[in-house]
Amino acid sequence: MNWLAICEESALPVFGGIAAWVEGKAVAIFNLGEQGIFAMDNTDPATGVGVLSRGLICDLQGDIFVASPLHKQHYSLTNGQCIEDESLSVELYRIKCEQGKVLINTAIVGGINDE
């Protein structure tokens, strides 16, 4: 796998999200402390606006979701699926921390999160 360093681990707010420009695409990165870090496309598929990194993180039905700040659709951080509308989903990326750096694999994955 080809891993790309995108920032220092200390730059990630705990229990929050940031957006990073990765190979021409905005990626939302979430640091959930002991639960790990997660990465998904930053574009809300319901609106086409890049806002998911600013969404609220929540636990619903035993899964971790980010709620879009626009219309509040919930997208799973583990599989990308929208809970309110099965036709909507977000692309996920493998992400991990090593030696104080956040690394992302730009290959799109379906529900896989390497830590």
Automatic annotation (TrEMBL):
What NCBIfam families does its record include? nirD_assim_sml
Question: In terms of domain of life, where is this protein from?
Answer: Bacteria
List the lineage, top down. Answer: Bacteria, Pseudomonadati, Pseudomonadota, Gammaproteobacteria, Alteromonadales
One GO BP annotation is:
nitrate assimilation
The protein's UniProt keywords, in alphabetical order, are:
2Fe-2S, Iron, Iron-sulfur, Metal-binding, Nitrate assimilation, Oxidoreductase
Alphabetized InterPro entries for the sequence: NirD, Rieske-like_NirD, Rieske_2Fe-2S, Rieske_2Fe-2S_sf
Q: Please state what the protein is called.
A: Nitrite reductase small subunit NirD
Q: Which GO terms describe its molecular function?
A: 2 iron, 2 sulfur cluster binding; metal ion binding; nitrite reductase [NAD(P)H] activity
